[in-house]
């Protein structure tokens, strides 16, 4: 197939082309620098009242010659190591936590075949995508959940451009903790961030957290129920038996209220059903790992790197970089009206935040959640949501201290 040319995401972005070249640092012994290119006022700031409209009809179908990127994503039950000696059973897209990075150009088609190999129900929700409702992956609202040995094909045109992600939308408090999430990057030929900050490396950090005991208890229970659910999912006639008394599924609000009148007790009514264990997060992860097993970010003097932060879990995180300020350049995939300078930035649940770091201060620098709770492993610090920004050429500037790994302060 020939590649289709994506339409520019925002009409006003074209004016920026060619406005900037690579920024020379010209660092001297007095640490003086050239003015940052972000101080120049040519970043797109014109407001377009129609900018949030889809470029392409979300209910359209591929035409001859359109590029279609095809993926098969299996959901499996597997063991995952968070840190040495801490393993937990998880669900995994494509055999890894996080799932595989899906990367596509804006306007191209994405075909994702979800194959469920677990005794539980799953879907994929493509968070931030403007797509047909049937492709949205919300069980019992846009599709039936996908049962054991069943599959569901998602087909949509990738829009809008930017940093996005995908995750299971069935039993989300469990399934996201248990590993069902991954990055979805939609590239653009007309990206003002790349033009203003000609970055040479691109990192994606998915932030999440887990209550290992909760996940263990819930997955054990799902495996015990799995055989019965598998049997019933295999027959449309038996599916009718999967009513509120078994699954908490009702055709409408009236049926739900009728069931309560007839004695049904919803699971959230703890005074009548018994104690329900609250979720208590005890491990905090970057790309499925807690410190000291997180991967560092690498940079050189004078280099720009792009860091895509994805809030996949249920908690906000406050990412702080030592020794540097950075530029906040995009939120939820969309370029900001102007870059904003920070050294600490909040990443909200479900939000994506893109930052640009400029190599200006050689050394090994901490990059971590500034919530002390989230920089621990099972209550012991240091750990959790912590990594390092490491200069590959630090020794050239006189910094020679070797980073020491610590698992107890």
Tell me the β content: 25-35%
Instruction: Please work out how many helical segments DSSP would assign.
Output: 6
Order of helices and strands: EEEEEEEHEHEHHHHEEEEEEEEEE
Which CATH architecture of the domain at 68-191? Answer: Sandwich
Identify the CATH class of the domain at 68-191. Answer: Mainly Beta
C-alpha termini separation: 56 Å
Q: Which secondary-structure class do the elements indicate?
A: mainly beta
Largest sheet: 6 strands, mixed
CATH topology of the domain at 68-191: Immunoglobulin-like
Give the low-confidence spans: 1-40
Radius of gyration: 24 Å
Number of strands: 19
- CATH homologous superfamily label of the domain at 68-191: Cupredoxins -  blue copper proteins
Question: Widest sheet: strand order?
Answer: 10-9-12-17-14-15
Indicate the mean pLDDT.
Answer: 87
Characterization of the model:
- Among the domains are: 68-191, Immunoglobulin-like; 243-275, no CATH class.
- Helix content is 12%, strand content 31%.
- It has six helices and 19 strands.
- The protein has helices spanning 172-175, 192-196, 212-233, 236-239, 253-261, 270-273, and strands at residues 68-83, 86-93, 102-105, 109-116, 125-127, 151-157, 162-167, 181-187, 201-210, 283-286, 297-299, 304-311, 317-321, 326-331, 334-342, 344-347, 352-358, 364-369, 386-391.
- The protein has a six-stranded mixed beta sheet.
- It is globular, with a radius of gyration of 24 Å.
């Amino acid at each position: 197939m020939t590649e289709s040319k994506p339409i520019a995401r925002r009409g006003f972005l074209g004016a920026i082309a060619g406005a900037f070249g690579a920024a020379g640092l010209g660092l001297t012994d007095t640490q003086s620098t050239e003015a940052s290119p972000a101080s120049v006022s040519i970043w797109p700031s014109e407001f377009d009242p129609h900018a949030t409209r889809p470029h392409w009809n979300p209910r359209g179908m591929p035409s001859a010659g359109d590029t279609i990127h095809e993926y098969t994503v299996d959901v499996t039950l597997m063991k995952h190591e968070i840190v040495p000696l801490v393993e937990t059973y998880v669900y995994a897209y494509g055999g890894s936590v996080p799932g595989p990075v899906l990367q596509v150009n804006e306007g191209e088609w994405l075909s994702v075949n979800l194959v469920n190999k677990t005794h539980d129900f799953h879907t994929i929700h493509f968070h931030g995508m403007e797509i047909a409702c049937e492709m949205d992956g919300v069980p019992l609202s846009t599709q039936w959940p996908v049962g054991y040995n069943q599959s569901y094909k998602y087909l949509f045109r990738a829009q809008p451009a930017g940093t996005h992600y995908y995750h299971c939308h069935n039993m989300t408090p469990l399934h996201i903790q248990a590993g069902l999430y991954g990055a979805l990057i939609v590239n653009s030929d007309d990206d003002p961030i790349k033009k203003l900050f000609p970055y040479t490396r691109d990192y994606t950090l998915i932030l999440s957290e887990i209550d290992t005991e909760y996940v263990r208890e819930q997955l054990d229970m799902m495996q015990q129920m799995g055989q019965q659910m598998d049997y019933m999912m295999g027959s449309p006639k038996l599916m009718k038996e999967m009513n509120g008394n078994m699954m908490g599924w009702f055709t409408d609000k009236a049926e739900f209220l009728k069931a309560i009148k007839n004695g049904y007790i919803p699971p959230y009514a703890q005074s009548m059903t018994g104690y329900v264990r609250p979720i208590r997060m005890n491990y905090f992860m970057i790309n499925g790992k807690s410190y000291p097993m997180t991967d560092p970010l690498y940079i050189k003097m004078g280099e720009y790197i792009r860091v895509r932060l994805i809030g996949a879990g249920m908690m906000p995180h406050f990412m702080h970089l030592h020794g540097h300020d950075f530029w906040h350049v995009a939120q939820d995939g969309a370029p900001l009206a102007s870059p904003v300078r920070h050294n600490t930035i909040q990443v909200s649940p479900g939000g994506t935040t893109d930052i640009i770091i400029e190599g200006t201060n050689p050394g090994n620098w901490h990059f971590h959640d500034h919530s002390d709770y989230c920089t621990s492993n099972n209550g012991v610090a240091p750990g959790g949501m912590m990594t390092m920004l490491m200069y590959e050429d630090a020794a050239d500037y006189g910094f020679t201290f070797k980073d020491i790994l610590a698992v107890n302060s």
